Amino acid sequence: MTLNFDGGAGITPTSVAIMNISGGGKDLSGIISNDLSRSGLFQPIDPKAFVEQVGPNAQPNFGSWQTLNAQVIVAGQVVPSGSGLSIQVRVWDVAQGKQIAGQQFTTSANNWRQLAHVAANTVFKAVTGEPGAFDTRVAYIAESGPADKRVKRLAVMDQDGANVVYLSRGNDLVLTPRFSPTNQELTYLSFGDADPRVFLANIQTGQREVVGNFPGMTFSPRFSPDGRKVIMSLENNGASTIQVMNLQSHQSSQLTDGSAIDTSPSYSPDGSRVVFESDRGGTQQIYIMNADGSNQQRITSGDGGARFSTPVWSPRSDLIAFTRQMGGKFGIGIMKPDGTGVRMITEGFHNEGPTWAPNGLYLMWFRDLGQGPQLWQASIFGTPEQRVPTQGYASDPAWSTNMMASR
Fold first, then answer.
1. Pairing of strands 72-81, 14-18
2. CA of residue 381 relative to chain centroid, distance
3. d(CA 226, CA 182)
4. How far apart are alpha carbons 224 and 4 in whole angstroms?
């Protein structure tokens, strides 16, 4: 399969037959099928139509599968491995009549769903040539209760909505979680009785520490690619500037100045540049600068009254995602770092807050149709958008930064 990164609508999903992959009391086939189906690039075949059940170490009867128009067969098994579980998965190309991928992966028994996500990644890579992002996690703000008394809690889940863990109790208002490059920690903004505070929370231990009190902060900081610094915007006397803090020394340096509102900074993957939004030209537009604050340049024109916000650099370096307000609509789009090639992924009522999958092929955002926010995702190459299942309302998603996100 060749993926069209310019957004062509001609992608036909690959027909895939997923055998019964189970063992150790766990059935992984349904999770693998769900992952691949939600990617928009695969169409799982109903097991009732299978011409045979291919064992983990058997070769398929390719001629029989061709009559079913199957293009890919996925077979394997789950076996005990010490105190954990191990999956052995094989991917077969029906037209070529050969195995195109195979992998074995071991994890703890209580983390068995990860085996299915790794298997789905193996299939995705074998067919598309690109890494999958199924074994990843998403931090978000879980919302519950009536609109005028909404309780917001910091939460983390697997990318398919499973294994939800709450990291705050809802006593304070929390916003905008951000993963560290190692996926072990999150920064988030908390509004309690005092000034807004930025917390650093360890996902595995639940421990948290205060990075600092920032009276003028409206968005949580983002980590630098090396994890040593965080970049943020701070308000003062009606203006806001972008500043960088060293996490070890807690020393800050200011990158922008003036009377404008500069906010929502995001590093390029190599840490050399920063994209941000500013109203210095009269409306919200997107700018790029060097990591030291030099060479600040506007990259969006604002034609047609368009306002651009919440820019986020792609992990692949080639694109920047953004929110665009235009003609009464809130859309999520992408463009090249020089501002060219603007393409909208979705448009409608109140779409906001894009976040990238670590492979740079999918975006997640939240949409509020009036009752409460929900998470959605779509690819950058024109496949249909999908709602991300959550327990209740959800906003401010942040996708983990690496594959094999730690548990």
1. parallel
2. 16
3. 9
4. 30
| DSSP per-residue string spanning 103-157 | EEEEEEGGGTHHHHHHHHHHHHHHHHSS----S-EEEEEEEES-GGG-EEEEEEE
Joined tokens for residue 246: 């060293």
Position 207, amino acid: Q
Alpha carbons 201 and 190: distance in angstroms, whole number:
12
Q: Is 65 helix (H, G, I), strand (E, B) or coil?
A: helix
Rounded to 5 degrees, φ, ψ at 66 are: -65, -30
Q: What is the pLDDT of residues 114-147, one digit of tens each?
A: 999 999 999 999 999 999 999 999 999 999 988 8
Helix, strand, or coil here: 194? coil
Grouping H, G, I as helix, E, B as strand and the rest as coil, residue 248 is: coil
Strands 386-388 and 373-379: antiparallel
Strand 320-326, strand 307-313: pairing: antiparallel
Global pTM value: 0.93
Q: Which is more confident, 245 or 357?
A: 357
| Bridge partner list, 274 | 267, 289
